[in-house]
Amino acid sequence: MGTQVKLTRSGGFAGLSLVAAVDLDELPPATASAVRAALAQVDFDPPARRPAPMPGAADTYQYDLVVTGRRLRSLTAHEPLADPGLRALTEVLLPLATPE
Amino acid sequence: MHPSQHHRSPFACIVPPDLLRDIIRGGNRAEREAAADTIAIDSSFRTLRAAFAATVAASPVAMRAMGGAGGQPHRTIYDQKHSTAMALGTVARNEGSKATKDPAVNEAYDGFGATYKLYWDVYGRNSIDNAGMPILGLVHYAVNYANAFWDGQGHMFFGDGDGQLFTRLTASLDVIGHELTHGVTQYEANLVYQGQSGALNESMSDVFGSLVKQYAKKQTAATADWLIGNDVVGPALQPALRSMKAPGTANQYDKQPATMDKYVNTAADNGGVHVNSGIPNHAFYLAATAIGGNAWEKAGRIWYDALRDNKVKPTSGFKAFGRATVRQAQMRFGDTSPEVDAVRGAWDQTKVML
Ligand SMILES: [Zn+2]
């Protein structure tokens, strides 16, 4: 069974959700390997991410990542993204995202 | 400085009672509560001690209460030059300096001026913290950034837009008023940015953002468009981002409810804060149009007073806030006034049971 990756960017002043849901087996090989490389760097443990916005902040983006495959992994993070893996992943996947 | 840092008695025991009473009248929420605590715990001579002078120097509110000037914003606009770094960029324009060749810089400067003016002229509020806080705008943030935000630390960031969702965000008075109002809310009720209190926080920003635009354009409740972001939406979000008059109808993706029975439960966007804000937004629209005339005069005053009402807490939802608007309308206009009826009717129509 292949790996599915769903990245949602929500919030911002617009409150608009952009969703990229991809199956790595169906992506062009170069894109799939960029996603794999980024995912390998993502730290899914809570201390490395930002589960709530900066105190008092408003209209920053929220990111929700769900990876399904051999196991399920997920996280929620807020701007500014501290995790370089997550930043790399947003650069690859957000151009493929569509408004929900 | 983050407001939480001065939530507990910054004036502890060294400020004269008269000055504390001035602060209670003029300060922001945290300062009023701290001053009230100080009066409550210390009504003795200790308040008259010599350390007073040092406190005045440390407290802009105290200086204002001592006769320091209000009515003048202190704006600085920084050019972030498309960097995503959050540190302050290059100063592009500061208070009193001439317009530059950069429209984003001038729009931010003028928009902050219009926002300061509404708060000062109509509500007697001196800037974000009601103590003359500097107003800092950071423009040209990131590349093709289709967003604007308040960072919780006194800075408003504006992107240039992606051309699809948004064009240059500074070109909208309601966007600028929206962002600055997040600062005002932080210094008053400090509504937690999650779920219903978060949606209320968002609604405060839309309400006063819209009022900044209406006040600058001299529009009445009847002539205003009650739209948010219509000056800066790109082709994907035409014709506007949000509608306070008809939530859910502003563009093809607009899912805002107008009534409580349509409240959206979601984990996205901190629990749907930009979606469910449609309900209190619509309540404000209904109250303002029922009262009639200029929305900033009566409905805006009631909403502003409710944001400063001690019974509205950081975790308060629509009901607690709605009750505060009724209470404030009663105190200002009388228990049986048409203004109270309009406010009650507005919450009733949005199906928020008070
Ligand atoms: Zn907002």
Strands, helices and their partners?
The complex is a heterodimer of chains A (100) and B (354).
Chain A: E1 4-11, E2 18-23, H1 29-41, E3 61-68, E4 73-78, H2 84-93, E5 98-99
Antiparallel strand pairs in A: 1-2, 1-3, 2-5, 3-4
Helix pairs in contact in A: 1-2
Chain B: H1 17-26, H2 29-41, H3 52-58, H4 60-65, E1 75-79, E2 90-94, H5 103-123, E3 135-139, E4 148-150, E5 155-158, H6 173-187, H7 195-217, E6 227-228, E7 242-243, H8 269-276, H9 278-291, H10 299-307, H11 318-333, H12 338-349
Parallel strand pairs in B: 1-3, 3-5
Antiparallel strand pairs in B: 1-2, 4-5, 6-7
Helix pairs in contact in B: 1-2, 5-6, 5-7, 6-7, 7-8, 7-9, 9-12, 10-11, 11-12
Zinc ion (ZN) sits between chains B (178, 182, 202, 205) and A (13, 58-59).
Task: Write a short abstract of this structure.
The complex is a heterodimer of chains A (100) and B (354). Chain A is of the alpha+beta class and 100 residues long. Chain A has helices spanning 29-41, 84-93, and strands spanning 4-11, 18-23, 61-68, 73-78, 98-99.
Notes on the protein architecture:
The complex is a heterodimer of chains A (100) and B (354). By secondary structure, chain A is α+β, with helices and mostly antiparallel strands. Chain A has one domain. Helix content of chain A is 23%, strand content 30%. A five-stranded antiparallel sheet of chain A has the order 4-3-1-2-5, with no helix packed on it. In chain A, β1 and β2 form a beta hairpin. In chain A, α1 (29-41) runs antiparallel to α2. In chain B, the strands form two sheets. A five-stranded mixed sheet of chain B has the order 2-1-3-5-4, with helices on one face. A two-stranded antiparallel sheet of chain B has the order 6-7. The longest helix of chain B has 23 residues, at 195-217. Residues 1-21 and 39-67 of chain B have low confidence and may be disordered. At the A-B interface, β1 and β3 of A face β4, α6, α7 and α8 of B. Bound molecules: zinc ion. Zinc ion sits between chains B (178, 182, 202, 205) and A (13, 58-59).
